């Protein structure tokens, strides 16, 4: 039973990330990486629009408010460290601006919070 619950949560997360990526592409962003894994953490989406790189955490929650409170300080720090890792891998970091965003997906509705942390 626990395995089924984890599988459903995993699938829900994949759907939310896909929907978030599509919504951002409609806004003019381009995917740089999805589920970028490093030894220090993972970033759900890395998107680019012009000279701006956005490191985006995607949360699938029942309500928008639940999603807003879902990224706690320790998780924010892991995402920051993973972003530093990405930058250190030679990603033209001196020429770009960076931002940390949050996408909350609730009932197939996406809320994009810029400068989330």
Which architecture per CATH? 3-Layer(aba) Sandwich
Total number of helices: 3
Count of extended strands:
5
The major β-sheet equals:
5 strands, mixed
Low-confidence stretches: none
Name the beta content range: 35-45%
State the separation between the terminal residues, measured CA to CA. Answer: 35 Å
CATH class: Alpha Beta
What is the total number of structural domains?
1
Radius of gyration: 14 Å
The main sheet orders its strands as 1-2-3-4-5
Shape: globular
CATH fold call:
Trna Endonuclease, Chain: A, domain 1
Secondary structural class = alpha+beta
Helix share of residues?
Answer: 25-40%
The secondary-structure element order is HEEEHHEE
Q: What is the mean predicted local confidence, pLDDT?
A: 87
Can you walk through the features of this model?
With 117 residues, this protein is of the alpha+beta class. The chain has a single domain (2-113), classed as Trna Endonuclease, Chain: A, domain 1, CATH 3.40.1350. 39% of the residues lie in helices and 36% in strands. It contains 3 helices and 5 strands; from the N terminus they run αβββααββ. The protein has helices spanning 2-26, 64-68, 73-88; strands at 30-38, 41-49, 52-60, 97-106, 109-113. It has a 5-stranded mixed sheet. It is globular. The protein starts with a helix and ends with a strand.
């Amino acid at each position: 039973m626990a395995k089924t619950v984890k599988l459903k949560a995993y699938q829900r997360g994949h759907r939310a990330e896909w929907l978030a990526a599509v919504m951002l592409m409609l806004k003019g962003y381009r995917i740089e990486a999805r589920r970028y894994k490093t030894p220090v953490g993972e970033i759900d989406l890395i998107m680019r629009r012009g000279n701006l790189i956005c490191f985006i955490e995607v949360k699938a929650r029942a309500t928008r408010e639940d999603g807003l409170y879902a990224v706690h300080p320790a998780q924010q720090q892991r995402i920051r460290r993973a972003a530093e890792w990405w930058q250190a891998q030679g990603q033209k970091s001196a020429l770009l601006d960076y931002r940390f965003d949050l996408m909350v997906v609730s009932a197939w509705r996406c809320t994009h919070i810029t400068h989330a942390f």
